[in-house]
Amino acid sequence: MRFGSDSDQDPWQQPMDGSHASGSKAVADGPGTQRTQYPYVTGSSIIALKYKDGVIMASDTGASYGSTLRYKSVERIKAVGKHSLIGASGEFSDFQEILRYLDELTLSDHMWDDGNSLGPKEVHSYLTRVMYNRRNKFDPLWNSLVIGGVKKGPKGEEKYLGMVNMIGTHFEENHIATGFGNHMAIPILRTEWREDMTFEEAVKLVEKCLLVLLYRDRSSINKFQIAKITTEGATIYPPYSLKTYWGFAAFENPAQGAVGSW
Amino acid sequence: MFRNQYDTDVTTWSPAGRLFQVEYAMEAVKQGSACVGLRSRTHAVLAAANKAASELSSHQRKVFRVADHAGVALAGLTADGRVLSRFLRSECINHAFVYDAPLPVSRLALRLADKAQVCTQRSWKRPYGVGLLVAGLDESGAHLYYNCPSGNYFEYQAFAIGSRSQAAKTFLERRFEGYNDYTPEQLIKDALSAIKETLQGEKLTSSNCTVAIVGRKDDGTVEPFEMIDVKRIQEIIDSMEAAEEAPAAEAESSSMQEEDKGTDAAPMDI
């Protein structure tokens, strides 16, 4: 999902010495500049869902350099302003750049000092424009972003959860999972998610998804972070590990019953 | 030889600390036919007196929709006003495109004021000769701003600009304290009454005024900025006249106050 899967165009097969310029994949932006066309350090799935009091978001704290699990303690979920959380899969430095954009926005709101602030809906819309615009410059920000939040509207407290990806696809949902989670966690969320879940129930559900991803996604690690956003504001909890059980029959003998050469 | 040596360009100060060109632009606002604006917590109403340039012509439009949540009424050079309302429209639509949300009215008024201010500080420009009443709705409720050619802007509960606006202001000053809790219908009536004050004896009809409203219903749904139907305005005027005649027409009191010129107002005073 996150980066090209054609094996003959695998980014990791490209030379890393900056000689992209000779390849057909590089985009030159005038003389002397050369933009990153492939992800280098990437984070894996984000899981997020609405629950009774707000939105909960979770991810592991790993970041891979190619397929090497290079960094084990990076925060991929951050608070934006007073009403929103953002979580990111994909290129980690691109995420940091996005955070800088958002900081600029919230700072300027603060400086106007007129009481106006961006809600999750506005942040999501803004990011949608940024992501689609960069994709159209053939210089995408290599991420799938999840934006969750709660803000008081004219009709009372409004929960919001949406995502946007590197090509500008965007939508709102009650539960969202990016990356591998889009394949592995969505089926679980679809059967088990309810509108009126308590925080404890939501944490249980999220942990179930994270554990499945830990078992099946080679680039996930057993160090997770959960965050929530409610009317009280954002809380990002310290990282912790889940208990694993590797004694399942399918893990013991993965080849059994598998049709194919392996 | 010259009556005033300090008014040949906008950026030149008089020794008394005044910018004459800016003041002249503010005078232009007083030449235009009157506009009033007033608001409750949830609704804002704009009204304008329409005056045709000649018997043979129609009048110029003075009330413009800027976006679903905001609109303006203007007095002064309508041509300048059209330029500014186009600017406001583009600001609103750009904000809506990026953030999928309406531009807060305070920000809208601020951008307008900043634009007007630039014209008072550039030798090759002239100030806009138009005053705008900006009415709109945002998260914090209904708002009304007055934007002046000088680049100053103020928020109001109720205000009037244009020729003979002092009469309307006097009317509004007597009544504004209750406006926060007014219904849309009551706001419209007071807007029409205020406009009537500026007509100086001329009869108020649906053909010589424009009224527009924007607001939010109790359930939170937005009632977009909209010109009120001519037929409905006439009905309201008729009902007001009927009510007036009932309790023995209380003579047209001594409300013939002329504009308060003559007084040595401070330069930036509105």
TrEMBL record, chain A:
The keyword Repressor does not apply. It comes from the Eukaryota. The keyword Cytoplasm applies. InterPro entries: Ntn_hydrolases_N, Proteasome_alpha, Proteasome_beta4, Proteasome_bsu_CS, Proteasome_sua/b, Proteasome_suB-type. GO terms for cellular component: cytoplasm; nucleus; proteasome core complex, beta-subunit complex. GO terms for biological process: proteolysis involved in protein catabolic process. Residues 1-36 are annotated as: Disordered. Keywords: Cytoplasm, Nucleus, Proteasome. It holds the Pfam family Proteasome. PROSITE patterns: PROTEASOME_BETA_1 (PS00854), PROTEASOME_BETA_2 (PS51476). It is found in: Cytoplasm; Nucleus. Belongs to the peptidase T1B family. Non-catalytic component of the proteasome. The 26S proteasome consists of a 20S proteasome core and two 19S regulatory subunits. The 20S proteasome core is composed of 28 subunits that are arranged in four stacked rings, resulting in a barrel-shaped structure. The two end rings are each formed by seven alpha subunits, and the two central rings are each formed by seven beta subunits. The catalytic chamber with the active sites is on the inside of the barrel. This is Proteasome subunit beta. It comes from Oryza sativa subsp. indica.
